[in-house]
Amino acid sequence: MRRSRLTAFAMVAVLTATSYGCAGGRISLGTGANACFRALPTAQDVVHHQGRLVGVRRFNTSTLRARLPNGSSTLPPQDVCAFAFDGSYPPGSVTGAHNPAPARYAIVDVSYNHPDTVVAAFTVDHLPTRFRHLH
User: Fold this and answer.
1) How far is residue 61 CA from its own chain's centroid?
2) pTM over 0.85
3) Are the beta carbons of 72 and 128 closer than 8 angstroms?
4) Which of 5, 34, 70, 105 shows a CA-CA span of 20 to 30 A to 27?
5) Residue 98: how many other CB atoms lie within 10 Å
């Protein structure tokens, strides 16, 4: 009888500890873009806090060169955090945009290693890749 109580108590303790571990807060999205969120204020400054953040992805600039419009060929080889914003972006509304035509989206590339350094900015009508985290 005493042994079954001890076993039951141990099972309750393990289940309680497990449930608290599963319900605890998270500081990670489980993606390669976790560290990019340090650079969010820098990206928001480039679009002057206009539009809605669609998402962020970590890229190497070689990948971006193949997906982004003119102006991306001059990107130096490095990892960047690419932030996508949905809004209305007339010419001149995105600081340093390589293609300042009016567009629906703004993409801001910030250095992964230096989250206060903007590498490039673009305005596009269609996102070159998926930015939403769907999990």
Assistant:
1) 15
2) no
3) no
4) 105
5) 17
Secondary structure, 3-state, 60-113? EHHHHHHHCCCCHHHCCCCEEEEEEEEEEECCCCCCCECCCCCEEEEEEEEECC
Rama region for 49: left / alpha / beta (φ>0; ψ in -120 to 50; rest): left
- Sequence length of the chain is 135
1-45 pLDDT, tens digit each: 566 665 655 555 555 555 454 544 444 445 556 789 899 999 999
**Distance between start and end Cα atoms, the chain:** 46
Other residues' Cβ atoms within 10 Å of the Cβ of residue 92: 9
Binned at pLDDT 50, 70 and 90, residue 53 comes out as very high
> Quick check: 103 pLDDT over 50?
yes
- Asked whether the CA dihedral 31, 120, 112, 39 is positive or negative, the reply is negative
Q: What is the distance between the alpha carbons of residues 112 and 15, in angstroms, rounded to a whole number?
A: 40
